[in-house]
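Predict structure. Chain length: 236.
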Amino acid sequence: MAALTHASRACLRATSSSSTAAPVRALSTTAVRNDNATTWTSYSSPFKAGTSKANNVPDFGKYVSSASPGKNKLFQYFMVGGMGAITAAGAKSTVQEFLVNMSASADVLAMAKVEVDLNTIPEGKNVIIKWRGKPVFIRHRTQDEIAEANKVNVQSLRDPQNDDDRVQKPEWLVMLGVCTHLGCVPIGEAGDYGGWFCPCHGSHYDISGRIRKGPAPLNLEVPAYDFPEDGKLVIG
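Prediction complete.
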């Protein structure tokens, strides 16, 4: 019985010794910090108590001019005056360029004046020329036509005007060929008064271009003209 007990204990010891696990080494993925290689830096917080600069007045001493106040004002006046002069010059140039662009072109200025040879117009005839895009009537009147124009009672006319006020030389009548009613072109040597007749609305003008009958309110307009020499007429 004692031998069996001794054998059982021997078997248990052998089993326990064979089942003892070998020591296991733990693995870690965290790098090991080398304290010897670490560099430490100092940090100073800007929010320290008692160091607020909200109530501190900045020093502008380095911006203060060392010159006298009078010299500084002189410089300021000079700059203001100089800038004002430059601005005025720029405004003048702008307005001048605008007016030049808005003025009449060369071809229009060339038509501003028209010269007519009166020797080519026989007595008792009309000539129509173009001036500034408008027709101009030139009538070489006879002595009978001049007398007829002068014997009219001016006070009875719708637009009272003497014949002498409409001509510079009695034998030459110069008028714009535009009806004063709606801008039509009257027909010469027609109408009830031997002058001009507008067929559009029935306006009659006499041999002096004065309205005598019809809806036109005014006489035919007389443009600016001159006789620079005998036999020459310049309109404009």
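Summary: The CA atoms of residues 154 and 160 lie 5 Å apart.
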